[in-house]
Design goal:
The chain is α/β, with parallel strands linked by helices. The chain has three domains: 5-131, Rossmann fold (3-Layer(aba) Sandwich), CATH 3.40.50.12160; 139-385, pyruvate-formate lyase- activating enzyme, CATH 3.80.30.20; 393-453, Nucleic acid-binding proteins (OB fold (Dihydrolipoamide Acetyltransferase, E2P)), CATH 2.40.50.140. 39% of the residues lie in helices and 21% in strands. It is built from 16 helices and 19 strands. It has a six-stranded parallel sheet with strand order 2-1-3-4-5-6, sandwiched between helices. A five-stranded mixed beta barrel has the order 15-16-17-19-18. Helix 14 packs parallel to helix 15 (364-389). 44% of the residues are buried. The chain binds 5'-deoxyadenosine (5AD) and iron/sulfur cluster. Residues 166, 168-170, 173, 175-176, 210-211, 249 line the site of iron/sulfur cluster (SF4).
């Protein structure tokens, strides 16, 4: 076999991009590419871009400026370095990218990653290749699966895409344009991926999609399955100890999802449920299709099903026309819900979206001031939430050695990092930990080793019990 060529991939933005990057690496492994951390000795550099906010796409152009130097340096050494722009900037800007940055050899939109090997061959032949179509074939079937050794090297948690695209058309958002219409994968294919991951040591799966709870994939019975039913199905796969899903829209929360939280111990009581604003007037201008009261109702339904449920959210400040009173509504909502964590962003007009043409842009100083105020509140709420965990005993899934010798790090159900002193054989197990201290965002605790959870022989038994419990309480 020829010497492997080196591939460096850099991802920006959301978890979907992290997952897509892995699938591109898996697909190019078939073409004899191996991943490298270094840009300078790479034969192929892929920038997997994000278009959600202005800063995200501007970063791509400055990175391309730096890559021009690396490419020139490689050429001086007699090496040909190819540069690929993938992701949502590629989709949104297409051929414009090569006009602005001639260093780019391939532009490929998110729906065409399975064509990457072909596009690289076309670029080698014709000098350049651009593809931003939405092909009809199933990209997921065409993309290569990771090899068992690769799965093990990536650790015990994994993302799995279950749906892509969005039909909601919030007026500020580019996703419906860059990722396209909402499409769900068939249940059997998702279950195959999860089984394969579990067989190779993965213990926690996060189902991902731009609007994941709009999932309506075809089930083995030929009917369309909601997300809650998919979660029940996946929880029964031996070896899967934890399930999560992200990102959800409040309007697509249905009874099946609430029931899944009530019935599935493997489904973590932590949900990212973006609200964006706490003002009905702004929610309407954003085309969010829900009110503040609707959002509260959804949160209450989850809390009734799982009293220990915690939430996170995304917020946008400075949406066109946002008044002081509107913003006060956002602060009040964030205070009332008491998020375990949350992200907040300054509104950024995205070309081609309806909000970009709305009058009454909010000035930068006001946006900065609102963002700082909201972030301060969110930070306080997050600290309160974390502090309330000290003294509690929480289940922790252990993932990897910590920075200090003898330390192992895992995650609580609420995604908080938890550090304990223990031997590395607890990695991959869920064990109860009594939290003793909090340092910034990390918890420290004492391990209870007597638990049977996470013991491989016990897992199947526990899962069987879970399945029969579901069978008696379901439908
Ligand atoms: N400006 C600012 N924030 C945005 N988001 C999406 N589009 C924009 C925009 N144009 C935020 C939303 C979304 C998150 C992923 O990014 O809060 O939930
Ligand atoms: Fe964008 Fe989410 Fe709205 Fe879809 S639901 S348009 S992805 S913000």
């Amino acid at each position: 076999m020829n010497t492997p060529r080196k591939l460096h991939i850099k991802s920006y933005g959301c978890q979907m991009n992290v997952y897509d990057a892995q699938r591109m690496v898996d697909t190019l492994a078939r073409e004899n590419f191996v991943e490298t951390d270094s840009v300078t000795d790479a034969d192929l550099v892929i920038l997997n871009t994000c278009h959600i906010r202005e800063k995200a796409s501007e970063k791509v152009y400055s990175e391309l400026g730096r890559l021009r130097e690396s490419k020139d340096a490689a050429a001086r050494d007699g090496r040909d370095m190819k540069i690929v722009v993938a992701g949502c900037v590629a989709q949104a800007e297409g051929a414009e990218i090569v006009k602005r940055a001639s260093v780019v050899d391939v532009v490929v939109g998110p729906q065409s990653y399975h064509h990457l090997p072909d596009l690289l061959r076309r670029a080698a032949r014709d000098g350049r290749a651009i593809e931003t179509e939405f092909p009809v074939e199933d990209k997921f079937t065409a993309l290569a699966q990771p090899q068992p050794a690769t799965i093990r090297a990536r650790g015990i948690t994994s993302f799995v895409t279950v749906q892509e695209g969005c039909d909601k058309f919030c007026t500020f958002c580019v996703v419906p344009y860059t990722r396209g219409a909402e499409v769900s994968r068939p249940v059997a294919k998702i279950a195959d991926d999860v089984r394969r991951l579990a067989d190779n040591g993965v213990r926690e799966i996060t189902l991902i999609g731009q609007n994941v709870n709009a999932f309506h994939g075809e089930g083995p019975d030929g009917k369309s399955w909601p997300l809650g039913k998919l979660l029940h199905h996946l929880a029964a796969i031996p070896g899967i100890l934890r399930l999560r899903y992200t990102t959800s829209h409040p309007c697509d929360v249905d009874d099946s999802l609430i029931a899944a939280h009530r019935e599935l111990p493997a489904l973590m009581p932590y949900l990212h449920l973006p609200v964006q604003s706490g003002s009905d007037r702004i929610l309407q201008a954003m085309n969010r299709k829900h009110s503040v009261a609707d959002y509260h109702r959804v949160i209450d339904a989850f809390r009734r099903a799982r009293p220990d449920m915690a939430f996170s959210s995304d917020f946008i400040v400075g949406f066109p026309g946002e008044s002081d009173a509107d913003f006060a509504g956002t602060l009040a909502l964030a205070e009332q819900i008491g998020y375990a964590s949350a992200y907040s962003f300054k509104y950024s007009p995205r070309p081609g979206t309806p909000a970009a043409d709305m009058p009454e842009m909010i000035d930068t100083a006001t946006m900065d001031q609102r963002l700082a105020q909201l972030q301060q509140l969110i930070d306080r709420k997050q600290s309160d939430f974390n502090a309330a965990c000290v003294g509690q005993t929480l289940d922790v899934l252990f993932e990897q050695p910590g920075k200090r010798p003898g330390q192992i790090v895992g995650r609580s159900p609420y995604l908080q990092p938890v550090h304990v002193m223990a031997s590395a054989d607890i990695i991959g197990r869920v064990l109860p930990v009594t939290m003793t201290a909090l340092e910034r965002y990390s918890l420290f605790g004492e391990l209870h080793l007597d638990s049977k959870q996470g013991d491989p022989t016990q897992i199947a038994q526990d899962l069987n019990e879970t399945t029969s419990l579901v069978a008696t309480t379901g439908a």
